[in-house]
């Protein structure tokens, strides 16, 4: 549910999926359903607004209006089944062969999808949405709901991932490594991230029923393998160029596979930034972490006195009361001024009977 750290992964269950890619200070939409309308153009989007953009693509409301022309309003009763956001650090651009749209990314500050994840979990708690957050370089994993059963076999630590690279079905058998080495630490970090992408799609194919329920999925993945290769070998090195070409091809296939698994109702987003403007802060989360109380400042687990839904509820109650009051006044006025001889059937029948007598 969260996007934290330089190499974190996250998955949340949702009814439709979107594929959006950001390359080197840019945001690129790889895949999106027809009812999610991304307009082609050079409109810049701020890094801090990406969580709001993800929320809007999934049909959720946000606290502040997003005045950005790149995304148009879609149908009210259609929303993607899942959203996949991939952040790639250490690269200016990726040569993604196919995409829906691409936008410049300005103010590339660190951001998280905590708010989106909390919205998904609160609205679809009974459907146990899938939430997966994985950071291979930091050996960090967070899963929620059905993710505990689906991704229990997903390698978590670097030692597990390296062991996975030597097993059957490893990406090493199909990738053109060229100048990359199977023994260098930085190279193995990059290859481990590619292996995790491959294993995620493989597990989703094995559990296709997850893409057919009514709870949305949210995937948040952050890759830092290219950043380590750039720091060790330099951007002009053959290792860095080969890794960039491999990652572009893998991300393209990853987006297509996820999009197809969710019945062409997914959005996949890829963000590529050379470096964030401020250091990214991370928060450790245990797999067995209990749900936090809604108001941490209260020992009695009391709700907040105010939230952004207050204005909506207030207007609904206010205008409903005004409408009912006007209706009561109108009915009372008509009853008070009613002529029994003409407006009442009872009195009208009585008058006729009197006249006949």
From TrEMBL:
InterPro entries: Renin_r_C, Renin_rcpt, RENR_N. GO terms for molecular function: signaling receptor activity. Residues 282-357 form the Renin receptor-like C-terminal transmembrane spanning segment domain. Keywords: Cell membrane, Cleavage on pair of basic residues, Endoplasmic reticulum, Membrane, Receptor, Signal, Transmembrane, Transmembrane helix. GO terms for cellular component: autophagosome membrane; clathrin-coated vesicle membrane; dendritic spine membrane; endoplasmic reticulum membrane; external side of plasma membrane; lysosomal membrane; synaptic vesicle membrane. It is a single-pass type I membrane protein. The chain crosses the membrane at residues 308-336. Residues 25-274 form the Renin receptor N-terminal domain. Pfam families: Renin_r, RENR_N. It is found in: Cell projection, Dendritic spine membrane; Cytoplasmic vesicle, Autophagosome membrane; Cytoplasmic vesicle, Clathrin-coated vesicle membrane; Cytoplasmic vesicle, Secretory vesicle, Synaptic vesicle membrane. GO terms for biological process: positive regulation of Wnt signaling pathway. It comes from the Eukaryota. PANTHER family: RENIN RECEPTOR. Multifunctional protein which functions as a renin, prorenin cellular receptor and is involved in the assembly of the lysosomal proton-transporting V-type ATPase (V-ATPase) and the acidification of the endo-lysosomal system. May mediate renin-dependent cellular responses by activating ERK1 and ERK2. By increasing the catalytic efficiency of renin in AGT/angiotensinogen conversion to angiotensin I, may also play a role in the renin-angiotensin system (RAS). Interacts with renin. Accessory component of the multisubunit proton-transporting vacuolar (V)-ATPase protein pump. Interacts (via N-terminus) with ATP6AP1 (via N-terminus). Interacts with ATP6V0D1; ATP6V0D1 is a V-ATPase complex subunit and the interaction promotes V-ATPase complex assembly. Interacts with TMEM9; TMEM9 is a V-ATPase assembly regulator and the interaction induces the interaction with ATP6V0D1. Interacts with VMA21 (via N-terminus); VMA21 is a V-ATPase accessory component. This is Renin receptor. The lineage of its organism: Eukaryota, Metazoa, Chordata, Craniata, Vertebrata.
């Amino acid at each position: 549910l969260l996007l934290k750290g330089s190499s974190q992964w996250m998955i949340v269950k949702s009814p439709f999926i979107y594929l959006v890619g950001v390359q080197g200070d840019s945001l690129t939409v790889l895949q999106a359903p027809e009812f999610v309308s991304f307009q082609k153009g050079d409109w810049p989007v701020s890094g801090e607004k990406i969580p709001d953009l993800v929320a809007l693509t999934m049909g959720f409301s946000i606290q502040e209006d997003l005045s950005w022309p790149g995304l148009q309003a879609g149908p009210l009763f259609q929303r993607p089944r899942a959203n996949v956001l991939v952040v790639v650090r250490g690269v200016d651009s990726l040569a993604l062969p196919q995409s829906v749209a691409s936008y410049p990314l300005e103010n590339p500050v660190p951001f998280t999808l905590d708010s989106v994840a909390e919205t998904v979990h609160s609205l679809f708690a009974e459907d146990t949405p899938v939430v997966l957050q994985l950071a291979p370089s930091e050996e960090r994993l967070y899963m929620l709901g059905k993710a505990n059963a689906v991704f229990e076999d997903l390698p978590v630590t670097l030692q597990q991932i390296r062991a996975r690279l030597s097993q059957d079905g490893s990406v090493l058998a199909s990738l053109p490594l060229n100048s990359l080495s199977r023994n260098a630490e930085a190279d193995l970090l990059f290859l481990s991230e590619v292996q995790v992408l491959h294993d995620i799609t493989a597990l989703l194919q094995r559990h296709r029923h997850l893409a057919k329920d009514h709870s949305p999925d949210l995937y948040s993945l952050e890759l830092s393998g290219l950043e380590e290769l750039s720091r060790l070998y330099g951007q002009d090195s053959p290792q860095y160029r080969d890794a960039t070409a491999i990652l572009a091809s893998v991300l393209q296939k990853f987006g297509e596979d996820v999009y197809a698994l969710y019945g062409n109702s997914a959005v996949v987003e890829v963000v590529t930034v050379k470096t964030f403007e401020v250091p990214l802060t991370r928060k450790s989360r245990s797999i067995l972490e209990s749900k936090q109380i809604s108001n941490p400042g209260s020992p009695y687990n009391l709700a907040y006195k105010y939230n952004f839904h207050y204005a909506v509820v207030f207007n609904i109650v206010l205008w409903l009361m005004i409408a009912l009051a006007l209706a009561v006044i109108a009915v009372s006025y008509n009853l008070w001024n009613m002529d029994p001889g003409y407006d009442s059937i009872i009195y009208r029948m009585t008058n006729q009977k009197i006249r006949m007598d």
